[in-house]
Design a protein that fits this description.
The structure is a single chain. This protein has 678 residues and is mainly α. The chain contains 21 helices and 7 strands. The chain has a 5-stranded mixed beta sheet, with helices on both faces. A two-stranded antiparallel ribbon has the order 6-7. Helix 1 runs antiparallel to helix 5 and helix 3 crosses helix 4. The longest helix has 29 residues.
Length: 678
């Protein structure tokens, strides 16, 4: 059987029916469209309400399915947990609650399917809305009917989350016995658990788990509630937890007997309980331990009490359990003085290990594994003796060491002799490999006569560096000469003039390549043409060079030069007074002509702000014919902007989406009566 580990703390919280309805309907309201108009096409209205019904059904289905999947199925889990659920929560009630939720999920799916079919034939917005309202109302009514099941499952979840995580198949020690015999005290001694211990019965009301280590293995120790000797039908829930653990867990059972009878029950009563629950110990290792021997020793018992304990021990030797062995005595301990506690733990662990090994060997799988194994045994090839070869020096040292003549002093001994750890400083120089051992402890000066000794290790370092650099330059120059000579040899038929022309062409080509690489990495990667020295570092793009290059081709460049010079920026200080010439017919200024006559006002939406900031650039020509064309273009631009202004847009590229749910309208607590408006 595979190892199963159950973690009931991960079960999803089960909300109440009212909270369930609020969560699902609020989610539907938030995740689906909320606006529909009477003027929409009927198909669009149907789709609007069909989407709400389908989304609500999907939300119910997801949440109910999550609850049904998280809760363990009684028939699929380990029998120990199955019976424990039956003892604690009543298996029938548990199954009934889960079955009711499963039925509710199926009914909600059917309701959604039926109302979606009806919505397909809705002929008006009002009819579609009423169908949606009826569908959501029926779903909520169904969940209200199952409010009791939801509340019950939430109580079960809370209790199951507090159950200890028990692995039914791991190595386990199960401690059982009458109440107040020392079960919890034993567990506190052998594990790191902290179980409450009190001098009255039934202090432990549930199963507690602790862990301990033995032979480098992790062991699980279970402290069960006390059991009374009475019929199974009369036992309460606390006792039934212990019965369930003993019946289903593969563990070594440790039955503790109180020899002092301080627990309130005689040894005869404890023996009767042992024999009554003995069928539960079938096929399990069993250990009987006598506790509280510090109060009353085993030798001080009455003969009849000693006979009862001997009878219980005889039952341990039966075929249903492994025997202790004739040489072993009955384990005795005192959880108060911790006498014999570890011995009891050792006996329990050894018994369980032996039982598990025997069970594995008896299985068919062990035989299959053993059949595939072959253990090779070496055989002598001849009768010649071949003893181990030990060097002579090693043999001598061994003899001296045995006689005490040779004593090896280790660093640990030196450390203890010279003050211990933190005080002793190991001598690392004694292991130096030098030509003369007297040099090991010589002091190496770092500063001598005020100068660093390391600077004078190589006095010719500067000359050598200069020589290396000079040699590198000579090699580089020689390489360039050889390269040029090789290129010239490839053209043997050229005279001196052609060779000079070829050199110019190659120089021009290399210059173009470098120029292209520079522009590609600097100027051509920017979104706009740069007007600084980066794009023209040599200042070759001037009007003078343009006039010379185009003039050589017979092109008149007078107008181009004049336009370039007129468009160039003039660095002059800002005048304090307004100048008509300075405005130059700017469309944002009310200007007068040279004769003093008023010109018609130029239309502009920005004419009022002309005195606010200084213009940084002057538009001499925008591709328009005259001032009337500019004014007409400005009017068209303003007219196009009015539509954007009505929609609160700054322009055609404005894609800002305003808040659909303003925070001041949709945040905060809702008052009474606000949640029933759906």
């Amino acid at each position: 059987m595979t190892t199963m580990q159950y973690n009931f703390k991960k079960i999803t919280t089960v909300p109440t029916a009212k909270d369930f309805i609020d969560v699902v309907l609020s989610r539907t309201q938030r995740q689906t469209p909320t606006v529909v108009h009477r003027g929409y096409a009927i198909t669009r209205i149907r789709q609007f309400y069909m989407r709400k019904v389908k989304y609500t059904q999907t939300s119910w289905n997801e949440k109910l399915s999550k609850i049904l999947e998280d809760f363990p199925r009684v028939d699929d889990i380990h029998p120990f947990y199955s019976d424990l659920l039956n003892v604690l929560y009543d298996k029938d009630h548990y199954k009934l609650a889960l079955g009711q939720l499963n039925t509710a999920k199926n009914i909600i799916d059917k309701i959604a399917k039926d109302y979606v079919k009806l919505l397909k034939y809705g002929d008006s917005l009002y009819r579609c809305k009423q169908l949606k309202r009826a569908a959501l109302g029926r779903m909520c009514t169904i969940m209200k009917k199952h409010a009791a099941s939801l509340a019950y499952l939430e109580q079960v979840r809370q209790h199951m989350s507090r159950l200890p995580s028990i692995d039914p198949n791991t190595r386990t020690i199960l401690v059982c016995g009458y109440p107040n015999v020392g079960k919890s005290s034993f567990m506190n001694k052998v594990t790191r658990a902290d179980v409450e211990v009190q001098p009255y019965a039934f202090t432990t009301k549930s199963i507690y788990v602790g862990h301990t280590d033995y032979k480098y293995l992790r062991w699980q120790v279970l402290d069960t509630p006390g059991i009374l000797d009475r019929p199974l039908e009369e036992r309460n829930t606390i006792e039934m937890q212990s019965i369930t653990a003993m019946a289903h867990l593969r563990a070594v059972v440790l039955y503790i007997v109180d020899a002092s009878e301080q627990c309130g029950y005689t040894i005869k009563q404890q023996a009767d309980l042992f024999h009554s629950i003995k069928p539960l110990f079938a096929n399990k290792p069993l250990v009987i331990a006598v506790n509280k021997v510090d109060v009353r020793k085993l030798e001080d018992l009455k003969p009849e009490d000693a006979a009862l304990i001997a009878g219980m021990r005889a039952a341990v030797r039966g075929p249903a359990a492994l025997t202790l062995g004739e040489e072993e005595e009955l384990p005795c301990m005192s959880t108060l003085s911790e006498e014999g506690v570890m011995e009891v733990k050792r006996v329990c662990c050894d018994k369980l290990l032996a039982a598990r090994v025997e069970q594995k060997l008896a299985s068919r799988r062990a035989g299959e594994v053993l059949n595939r194994l072959h253990v090779a045994q070496p055989k002598p090839r001849d009768n010649i003796s071949r003893p181990a070869v030990i060097p002579h020096s090693v043999a001598i040292n061994k003899a001296k060491k045995a006689s005490g003549e040779l004593k090896i002093v280790t660093e640990k001994m030196l450390q203890e002799e010279n003050g211990g750890a933190g005080v002793y400083n190991a001598d690392l120089r004694k292991n130096y490999l030098l030509d003369n051992d007297d040099w090991k402890y010589d002091i190496m000066p770092e500063i001598y006569n005020g100068k660093n000794v390391a600077d004078f290790i190589d006095p010719e370092i500067d000359e050598r560096l200069a020589e290396l650099e000079r040699e590198e330059e000579e090699l580089e120059a020689k390489f360039q000469e050889d390269k040029a000579a090789a290129e010239m040899e490839m053209e043997p038929d050229l005279d001196d003039e052609e060779k000079e022309l070829l050199g110019q062409v190659r120089a021009r080509r290399s210059k173009l390549v470098s120029e292209h690489r520079r522009k590609k990495s600097v100027a051509n990667n920017v979104p706009t043409m740069r007007r600084d020295r980066t794009s023209d570092p040599e200042r070759r793009l001037t009007t003078t060079r343009m006039k010379e290059s185009l003039g050589a081709m017979g092109i008149d460049t007078t107008l181009a030069v004049a336009r370039a010079r007129s468009a160039s920026a003039v660095r002059e200080g800002r005048k304090r007074s307004r100048s008509l010439a300075g405005n130059g017919g700017d469309e944002d200024v009310d200007a007068m002509d040279a004769d003093g006559e008023e010109q018609p006002r130029v239309h502009s939406s920005k004419s009022r702000s002309v005195s606010v900031a200084r213009r940084t650039s002057k538009s001499k020509g925008a591709g328009l014919r005259d001032e009337s064309e500019k004014m007409r273009a400005q009017k068209l631009a303003d007219k196009a902007q009015r539509k954007m202004n009505k929609r609160a847009k700054t322009g055609e590229a404005d894609r800002v989406i305003i808040t659909k749910m303003p925070k001041h309208l949709f945040s905060g607590k809702r008052g009474n009566g606000k949640t029933d408006r759906r």
